[in-house]
Write a structure and sequence with these properties.
The complex is a heterodimer of chains A (170) and B (175).
Chain A: E1 2-3, H1 4-25, H2 37-64, H3 73-89, E2 95-98, E3 103-108, H4 127-130, H5 132-144, E4 149-154, E5 161-167
Antiparallel strand pairs in A: 2-3, 3-5, 4-5
Helix pairs in contact in A: 1-2, 2-5
Chain B: E1 8-9, H1 11-29, H2 32-57, H3 67-83, E2 87-90, E3 98-103, H4 126-136, E4 140-148, E5 157-166
Antiparallel strand pairs in B: 2-3, 3-5, 4-5
Helix pairs in contact in B: 1-2, 2-4
Chain lengths: 170, 175
Amino acid sequence: QAAESCLELLNIEMVQAVTRGFIETHTKHGFEGEVDKKTQDEEIRRRLESMGFEVGQRLIDRYTKERTQFEEDLDRIKFICKEFWGAIFKKHISNLKTNHRGVFVMQDDDFRWLCHFSDATGSAEFVPNYVAFPCGLIRGALANLGIQSTVQAEVHRLPACQFTIRVLSQ
Amino acid sequence: QAAGKVEKINAELLTLTYGSIVNQLLQDYEDVDEVNKQLDKMGYNIGLRLIDEFLAKSNLGGKCKTFKETADVIAKVGFKMFLGITAQVTNWNSEQSEFSLILEENPLADFVELPEKFSKLWFSNIYSGVIRGALEMVQMSVECKFVRDTVRGDDATELRVIFKEYLEEVIPNDE
């Protein structure tokens, strides 16, 4: 048991540290000279997303050990919305929608990791970097439940966050 | 019961997330000393903010008057509130200006095995920064560093905290 605030602050510092790490070492990773802001942000998000992916894979294995197999994709997604979200954030996803053709939209109306941001401070432009890790978490968890997917986050009004899952056909 | 009002989460996510950050920094910098510095820096920034919650929720009813009291509060209240563990305060120097914190449990280092090439890494170095940052916000300048870590195969995990000076006023410096 750890304090939730530790994780929230760690999440913020993680984004900062990965950003510094990239900027200070980018030539080592094959990026020559000046890197424009867009490329830089994309690469930082890619890294955070893949960190989240690995953590998601390891976490879901801990929560599913004694569970029976899932019948359908919808059951797996529901497991993420309830059990997985519940274990991490102590609450369920606020709203789940699907088009029944492989797209699922999960909305968390009060996403804990965005509660330190406010629209007023103008930090909204940096928000995409702060939701890359949780996108990876979801994608990693789903991968170990047998669903290959892409996950994108959209933040229209803080601290609500909408995750769009697109199931990739096998 | 001081920690009762703090929202708690499962520590596994914290542990795994921290591990993935250390891993990423090792890949980026390929230099263990630099990673130690980066972890300390992250901790410092966290400490600057964490102290607010600590003061608001610890119900200590006043400041720590001595460095000795401060040490006990960090060990018994601070670690308990944020990580659910306690530390032992020990190895005071004769001037009472340096002490060690012995961590018998360390949630950050669960499931960690360090490869040989990273043997100089202080895996949990974020703690050093957190303590330094938090104390700076209560006008106390300290140096904080690991001297032993079971992750490295040492017989204990020991953080050394060295008092430097009382600060006149607080100028937060986000690193």
